[in-house]
Every structure is written in C-alpha cells, then in structure tokens.
Write a structure and sequence with these properties.
Elements: E1 4-8, H1 14-23, E2 27-31, H2 35-42, E3 47-48, H3 52-57, E4 61-64, H4 69-77, E5 93-96, H5 102-113, E6 117-118, E7 124-125, E8 128-131, E9 134-135, H6 137-143, E10 146-151, H7 154-167, E11 168-175, H8 179-207, H9 212-220, H10 227-230, H11 254-270, H12 276-293, H13 302-305
Parallel strand pairs: 1-2, 1-4, 2-3, 4-5, 5-8, 10-11
Antiparallel strand pairs: 6-7, 9-10
The structure holds nicotinamide-adenine-dinucleotide.
Length: 311
C-alpha cells in the first residue's frame, strides 16, 4: 500500500514533485528545515511535521529530495531521522531522488534492509530503499515530465511506478541498489564533457573566422552532432528558448554541474579508474562558479572559451 506518502526536501525540485503527488490524490506528510517552505504546504492543510521521524511514523513510503549525500545521511540516520524507529519502522519503502554518491546510497540501502517492519497482516518484512534520481530539471519537475533512473529491488520498483508517473513521464530500471545514482552521474559527466567540446570547437571556429551559426549547421548535419549542438546550443542567438539566448538564466546551474562532476570524480577514484576529462571538466566548472556564474545554466561554459561578440 502506497497511499500515505512522506516527502522531505521541498526545494526547487521537491516543491513541484510534492505538489504533483498531492494533485494525483496521494495523502502527503512533508518536512523541510526551511519553515517558510513548510508553510506553503501547511497553509493548504497539508500535514507538515518537525522531524523526518514524524514523517516516517505517518507514511507508507517516504521520498527524499535533498541537496547532497551528507544531507541524505543525516535525514536517514541522524537524531529523529527516518530510521529512528529501528525495527518498528512504519514505511516499507524509502525512495531517495537526490543526486548523491553511489557509496552512500548503497550503505543506506543495506542499513534499511536490516530493519524489520511489521506489516498489518502480521508478517514481518524488511523495508526497501530505491535510489531514483531524476533528469529534467526544475521545469520537468513542474511539468511532471521528469525521468527517473532507479536502482534497487525490481519488485519495489514496479510497486513504486505509479508514484514515479505522478511526478514524471519516464522511468528506467537500472538494477542493483546505487545503480540509479551511478547512471545519473555518468549521464551528467557525458553531458558536461560534450558541452565543453562543443563550446571549445565553436569558439575556435569563430577565432578562425567561421560564424557559430554556420559551424552549428555543419555540426548538426555531420559527425559532431549532439544534444549540446542541436538542442541546447551554448552560443547566444543560435537557438531560441534555450538558456544561452537569455543570458544563461534558468536551466541546470553550473554549481549543480560542478557537484555532479565531483561525485563522478570521487566514484572514479574509488574504483581506480582514470578520469582526466572528469577532472578537467570539474576544474573548468569550478572556475566558472568562482567567476560568478554559479547560478547560471551550465552551457555558460562557452564563456570560458569565448568572450567576444557572438555569431
Ligand atoms: P534545493 O537546495 O533547492 O532543495 C533542497 C531542499 O532540502 C531545501 O528546501 C532545503 O531546505 C531542504 N533540506 C536541506 N537539508 C534538510 C534537512 N536536513 N531536512 C529537511 N530538509 C532539508 O535543491 P534542488 O535543486 O531541489 O535539488 C535537490 C536534488 O535534486 C539535488 O541532489 C540535486 O543535485 C538534484 N537535482 C536537481 C536538479 C535541478 O535542476 N535543480 C535537477 C536534477 C537533479
């Protein structure tokens, strides 16, 4: 049974996701450390409680959407955290949609499966955790078009599908615990590097006298074509409706891209895999953040290579 849903972390993403669950008819109990955010829900009669433990006490399933690994760990295992109830846990399913490191996610999943939950029919069962990070950004969260990449037990994934479709339009089952977050950080690593490649090449082309629009046309009908060239072009004025054409406002911030690259780098180092492009991409995004671009869309990295007139 998944009627009573707890939701923790009502920020840029979580606010919309929780609202979409409410609109789909689920009965929510919410929590955030930011009281003004909580009030946006309690003012509408939604149950807003003080601690993650109180969320757990009144929910069949709990969803977390928090900034980083340390926040997720403290919400689960801190004082009055979700797992405070130990063997008397009420929820049988925990879904973490935050982008965190696979190691933390797998550790939590093991902790959780060691707790016993007592089902109403009297059969003791272990609760389950799914890692289910998302792509689609704040606009996708608002429009209910997110994609969920899900790791954990397949039965739990199938049971949770209606929840995912109340918040998004696509789900991909990735296998074992932690595989959802692994997929997410690999996707963002590939996206960061392709954006850098397209930006560097478009800047070089302009330096050599070819306009960015001519070069983009060539890329898009040749082997360099990719999402960064044909759907999210980083050069202002080439495409309408993308962040580069509104001074890089909105979209996916450089700060979040740097965070995801840090997770990719740490994961690569953990398994002793070489990651020169991850390291260089991270350096460039950190530099962009320190130059004042931290809240700008990550395609602003074009400015790392080119500061002249565009096109
Ligand atoms: P956010 O910072 O806007 O929201 C996080 C919320 O968690 C805030 O409201 C904060 O007050 C709350 N919070 C922090 N610590 C807490 C605690 N201990 N207990 C309860 N609440 C707490 O972040 P966001 O942009 O919504 O992103 C959330 C996650 O989703 C991140 O892991 C991010 O990497 C990932 N993500 C974000 C985007 C995006 O475009 N914003 C896209 C895909 C994935």
């Amino acid at each position: 049974q998944l009627e009573k849903v707890g939701f923790i972390g009502l920020g840029n993403m979580g606010f919309h996701m929780a609202n979409n669950l409410i609109n789909a008819g689920y009965k929510l109990t919410v929590n955030d450390i930011d009281r003004s955010t909580m009030r946006k829900f309690s003012d509408r009669g939604i149950s807003a409680v003080e601690t993650p433990f109180e969320v757990a006490e009144s929910s069949d399933v709990v969803i977390t959407m928090l900034p980083s690994s340390s926040h997720v760990s403290s919400v689960y295992t801190g004082e009055y955290g979700l797992l405070h109830g130990g063997s008397q846990l009420r929820p049988w399913l925990f879904i973490d949609s935050s982008t965190i490191d696979p190691y933390t996610s797998r550790k939590l999943s093991m902790n959780i499966s060691q707790c016993l939950v007592k089902e109403s029919k009297g059969n003791p069962n272990s609760p389950v955790m799914l890692d289910a990070p998302v792509s689609g950004g704040v606009l996708g969260a608002a429009a209910r078009t997110l994609t969920f990449m899900v790791g954990g037990l397949e039965d739990a994934y199938l049971a949770a599908k209606p929840l995912f479709f109340a918040m998004g339009k696509n789900t991909v089952y990735c296998g074992a615990p932690g595989n959802g977050v692994a997929a997410k950080i690999c996707n963002n690593l590939a996206m960061a590097v392709s954006m850098l490649g397209v930006s560097e090449a478009l800047a070089l082309g302009q330096g050599l006298g070819i306009s960015a629009s001519t070069l983009t046309n060539i890329f898009n009908s040749s082997s360099a074509r990719c999402w960064s060239s044909d759907s999210y072009n980083p050069v202002p004025g080439i495409m309408e409706g993308v962040p580069s054409s509104r001074s890089y406002a909105g979209g996916f911030s450089s700060k979040l891209m740097a965070k995801d690259l840090m997770l990719a780098k740490a994961s690569a180092e953990e398994i002793h895999q070489k990651c020169p492009l991850t390291s260089e991409a991270l350096n460039i995004y950190m530099e962009m953040c320190s130059r004042g671009y931290e809240s700008k869309d990550f395609s602003c990295v074009y400015r790392h290579f080119y500061s002249g007139d565009d096109n």
